[in-house]
Amino acid sequence: MGSTDQERTTHENRQSVCDSNVGTRSGGKASPTYLGTKVKSDATLIRVETDNGLTGIGAALGTPPIVAAIVEHELAAECVGEDPLFSERIYEKMYNGSRSRPALERGITQADESRRRGVITEAIAGVDIAVWDVKARAVGIPLYQALGAARSSVRGYASGGWAPGEEAEAELAGYAAKGFTAAKMRVVGRDGFSIGMECLDERNHQPGVLRSRA
Q1: Tens digit of pLDDT for each residue in 152-208?
Q2: Where in the chain is the domain with CATH 3.30.390.10?
Q3: 187-195 long-range CB contacts below 8 Å, 24 or more apart?
């Protein structure tokens, strides 16, 4: 195949991002975290669409109207017209913003003082996930394989342990009853949340509800 044929094939197979839009979700119940109690959880679903009909979906944390404004008024312009298979190019354009051209030409990300920070990085992450979703769909493989898989399955675990005092044992037992064989348990945090070490020592010498299923 000559160079002309190669160029024609590349052009015919090329796709480009034609739109980037968002959907928002806000709410949920209050929940404790290491850094204090969260009164709600916000998420913004981000869709990246290509001119050949593929759609990728990503998600970003942060106040939805702010994330939506960042995507619609700034990041979308960096993505439209780009080939989603060049995901790193799209990321560098979003991350470097108005300095993306010299960064791409030199292959060097801009100095730390001028890099993106705060909620805009959350928005960038959401778009980046959606672009990778499109990329995986374009080549016909699951996203985890497109990212570079090391195995075909992973062990799932429950994430909890926030219930106070002795209630934590019942909470973790509930995860075991649902079929989980592992759990991540918190034992210390802000807002007065903690489980005393003497309590942990005592439980460590008792049959564990999850260890019995290992």
Answers
A1: 888 999 987 777 667 778 888 899 999 999 988 776 655 555 555 445 455 444 444
A2: 15-146
A3: 187/161, 188/34, 189/32, 189/33, 189/34, 189/35, 189/36, 190/34, 190/35, 190/36, 191/32, 191/36, 191/37, 193/32, 193/162, 193/164, 195/165, 195/168
Q: Which amino acid is at 146?
A: A
pLDDT digits (tens, 9 = 90+) for 78-126: 999 999 999 999 998 898 877 778 778 877 776 666 667 889 999 999 9
Q: Which CATH architecture has domain 15-146?
A: 2-Layer Sandwich (3.30)
